[in-house]
Amino acid sequence: MEENKSEDFSKYALGLGKLRRRRWFFWGVILVYVPSIWLSLRLTNSDRQTCKVFAVWYLFVFISSILAAATKCPRCGKLFHVNGFIPLYLRRCLHCGLHITADKKQRKKAAPENI
Ligand SMILES: [Zn+2]
């Protein structure tokens, strides 16, 4: 899964950008869990109401995880985070090894030469 150094990753920028947005949405929803449950318990002081907040949060996690898992790799065209049945939200494509920020890294490396 060694990345070809001469490969132009800028052509994958659109697909990788979409992938990064979906990943941010997914991890953001997970990060919101503790504050939202804490706030709900604080404001409502009710387990029943907090259970409803949890149900909404769970729905968002479910949707965001499906969206992130269903995104295809712009290089190989296979599902970026799924190889088999279980999604793994790693930073590299599970099939071709394309890094989630390959286009940004290449742009940074190329920038000093352009000045
Ligand atoms: Zn791939």
How much helix is in the residues?
Answer: 55-70%
Uncertain ranges: none
Mean pLDDT: 91
- Distinct ligand kinds: zinc ion
| Whole-angstrom Rg | 19 Å
- Main sheet: strands, sense, barrel: none
Number of helical stretches of at least 4 residues: 3
Query: Which secondary-structure class do the elements indicate?
Result: mainly alpha
Succession of helices and strands = HHH
First-to-last CA distance: 32 Å
- State the total count of DSSP E strands: 0
Global shape: elongated
Number of domains: 1
The fraction of residues assigned to DSSP E strands is under 5%
What does this structure look like?
It is a single chain. This protein is mainly α. It has helices at residues 13-44, 47-69, 102-114. The longest helix has 32 residues, at 13-44. It starts with 12 loop residues before the first helix and ends with a helix. 16% of the residues are buried. The structure holds zinc ion (ZN). The site of zinc ion has 8 residues, from loops.
